[in-house]
Design a protein that fits this description.
3 domains; 18 strands; 3-stranded mixed beta sheet
Length: 411
């Protein structure tokens, strides 16, 4: 089995992720290309300095703006919202690949009394009136129901009928999210927004195991390197350890993924077979590994397996937003700072859209990281780019011993 060093593994991952060297992703086309590479972006509604999916893209895509993602989702319909790695944003061409999920949703929905009647009522209203939210759909009352978005099938008890019927039709694939107003979702008929050539494709998988293999390969590609262990990178895939083992075995036998050893790491790691030329280039020193600084999203694909990040970088990252304030080590919404091949620290920022200000509240550097002039210059440049992404004209440097406001320059 091929063996590489920890440094080579890091550089391979960062090049694969588009986080090292010159930015190869740019604008709307670049954002779409990265989502296709990752398979999905995890969605989270929290927005202190940008939502998770937006933060993921700004770290990789030159001249990315928040409205770029909105357009790809709700104007161009190149992406759609659905359940994958939890709630996610997915390329529309993958719609047929989630047929098993929709089939399961329909089977679960059929077990709830009166739901079919509500679905008929809701669909008639939407056909006549267009996109609706649970607040505007004229369906009253509540029903005993659980969300098909949760594979566990845990019961929620009584749920507002309007919310239940819209979410059921959404997970069935009959509706899609038309747009969002803040955290409020508006739904419309899928047939109005998804190309019939895509919408009408049949389930491409022969059985559940074939579907699992596709999803496991997709998650390996999203991270770049993954081991055959229990991992948060596999969240949302309905499988136990034996089924995961079988998926890895089949993918390796088919030559779809390859296995390598990293010096000092106990478990072998796997990567997509088509990435071997990139691995060769990294190991031969011909890959573009020029250093740049980026701020990573809390649920960035690179960070999906925190144990792997700790093994490769000795960097321990925990998203503390759900940690009680008194128990937080850093802050509620802190982004890792990547500089070249190293995680050099963490940063806490908040944007004020009304004032057009980016408030840099605090920066924590990792042990052993010296705050050199080169580091300060890289941070200043990264903040200017982040301010442009956030449409902020002023950067408030409250992380400094002498706080100051500085103008943000265009990217």
């Amino acid at each position: 089995m091929r063996e590489i060093t920890v440094s080579e593994a890091r550089r391979f991952l960062l090049c694969r992720q588009g986080l090292m060297g010159s930015r190869r992703f740019e604008g709307a086309a670049g954002a779409l290309a990265y989502v296709r590479q990752a398979g999905c972006l995890q969605f989270d509604p929290v927005d202190l300095c940008g939502r998770n999916a937006e933060l993921t893209l700004q770290a990789r895509v030159r001249r990315f703006r928040k409205d770029t993602l909105h357009s790809l989702l709700y104007r161009d319909r190149a992406l759609f919202d659905y359940a994958d790695k939890e709630l996610a944003i997915i390329p529309v061409e993958d719609w047929p690949c989630f047929a098993p999920y929709r089939e399961r949703s329909k089977a679960l929905g059929a077990t709830f009394p009166k739901l079919a009647e509500l679905e008929t009522q809701a669909l008639a209203w939407i056909r006549e009136n267009g996109p609706v939210s649970s607040d505007t759909l004229p369906v009253d009352g509540s029903i005993s129901w659980h969300s098909s978005m949760h594979w566990s099938g845990s019961w929620e008890g009584k749920t507002r009928a309007a919310r239940a019927v819209l979410e059921q039709l959404y997970t069935d694939g009959t509706l899609v999210i038309h747009h969002k107003n803040g955290t409020r979702k508006f739904y419309d008929l899928a047939e109005r927004h998804i190309d019939p050539a895509v919408l009408e494709q049949e389930n491409p998988f022969a059985d559940e195991q074939a579907w699992r293999c596709w999803r496991v390969r997709r998650r390996i590609g999203a991270v770049g390197l993954l081991w055959n262990r229990r991992s948060d990178a596999f969240l949302g895939i309905d499988m136990d350890s034996a089924q995961r083992e079988e998926a890895f075995r089949r993918l390796l036998e088919a030559g779809i993924i390859r296995e390598i050893r990293v010096v000092g790491i106990r478990y072998p790691l796997c990567f997509p077979a088509e990435d071997e030329p990139l691995l060769d280039a990294v190991c031969e020193g011909t890959a573009d590994t020029r250093r740049r600084m980026e701020f990573l999203a809390p649920l960035d694909p690179l960070l999906w397996d925190r144990k792997l990040i700790e093994a490769l970088w000795d960097f321990r990252y925990s998203w503390e937003i759900y940690t009680p304030p008194a128990k937080r080590k850093y802050g509620a919404y802190v982004l890792p700072i990547l500089w070249g091949e190293r995680f050099v620290g963490r940063i806490e920022m908040v944007t004020d859209a009304r004032r057009g200000e980016l408030d840099v509240r605090r920066v924590w550097y990792e042990d052993g990281v010296r705050e050199t002039q080169a580091l300060r210059t890289a941070l200043d440049h990264a903040l200017r780019r982040f301010a442009a992404f956030s449409a902020c004209g002023t950067i408030l440097r409250n992380d400094r011993s002498a706080p100051q406001a500085v103008p943000a320059c265009p990217e």
